[in-house]
Amino acid sequence: MKAIVKTTAEPGAEVADVDIPTPGPRDALIRIEAASVCGTDLDIVRNWDAAAATWGSKLPMILGHECSATVVEIGDEVDEVSVGDVVVVETHIFCGECAACLNDARHNCLRMAIPGVSRDGVFAEYAVIPARSLYVVAPGVDPGLAALYEAAGVAAHATQRAGDVTGATVAVTGAGPVGLFLVAQLAAAGAGDIAVFEPEPTRRARAAELGATAFGPEESEPFLEFVRAHGKVAGADLAFDVSGAPPAYGLLFQALGKDSRLVSIGHMSTPLPVNISKDLNLRVLDWKGTFGRHIWSSWDIVDSLVRSGKLDLASFVVDELSLDELPGRLDEIGRLPGKVLVRP
Ligand SMILES: NC(=O)c1ccc[n+]([C@@H]2O[C@H](COP(=O)([O-])OP(=O)(O)OC[C@H]3O[C@@H](n4cnc5c(N)ncnc54)[C@H](O)[C@@H]3O)[C@@H](O)[C@H]2O)c1
Ligand SMILES: [Zn+2]
Ligand SMILES: [Zn+2]
Asked: What InterPro entries does the record point to (predicted)?
């Protein structure tokens, strides 16, 4: 089968012909309907050593982690899915047996594996995935677009972490695909005014289309005035960082009101200095992190938004590529105002 494989630690990846993998007793062999490209894939292509240091990843490895697929074969012990089911892969492959898994925190499994990061991934015609890590998509949902459940589910988990968003004035830094999914879900959940701060003009335009008021790099003062004018106590009631950029926190700590909430989604590779008294204590800030999707409630949220028409996945697709086209297009993908689907 055709797959995109990383063979050396140097930046880059190539299309290769590899064997179709064989499922074990608790696995499913899935035929990929569509994969979607995420910033993590781009990081791994460019900076293999960092990924390998974090995850113990080994070369060669098939890249890609977000996908939808059809089950074509199952192992003898599988009862979670059937041949013919359309499924999406929960990329935090959990063991089901560790302390995290037994305490409703499978997204934080202590023995987690991630396709395309620590084991063979889904930029391929077929993949083998443990059946327990597959979410069956309801009939009627487009089998290709379902690949976007995974990234949309990150935003869903962040809204779960935030609690009630009804009527809240929200500040968001970063309108990449995850930030855009977040804006759409905040609007659908009845949030009040949503202010987005994002350097990339096409991403700002898309955030505005989804109901936010968008501000660019020269507009930090208008951004702050906006949330102070609309928020309950001298600033935004709620904020999300979806950039992972250290300067975004400087802005959010000015934007947040008293007794407010902050959810960090963006990953940051460097430590961030924080003024605990001023930014956290005196504000009585409720600051949370989030990782992956809560299994399976975040998936159910996305599924119900999609099926009720409140989340139009098709509108988030900015391009569709074949596996052959993908390696040559990786550089531009990180700036596009939505997701790129790969159809093997
Ligand atoms: N917590 C999780 O489980 C989880 C899951 C998926 C992705 N992530 C992380 O979430 C972040 C967003 O993911 P994405 O796929 O949308 O990535 P992305 O890189 O496409 O989006 C980040 C956006 O932030 C913008 N940005 C850069 N500097 C900024 C600043 N100072 N202020 C405001 N915006 C700024 C960029 O222009 C970009 O549009 C990334 O850091 C990613 O690694 C976290
Ligand atoms: Zn991803
Ligand atoms: Zn586990």
From this structure: ADH-like_C, ADH-like_N, GroES-like_sf, NAD(P)-bd_dom_sf, Zn_alcohol_dh
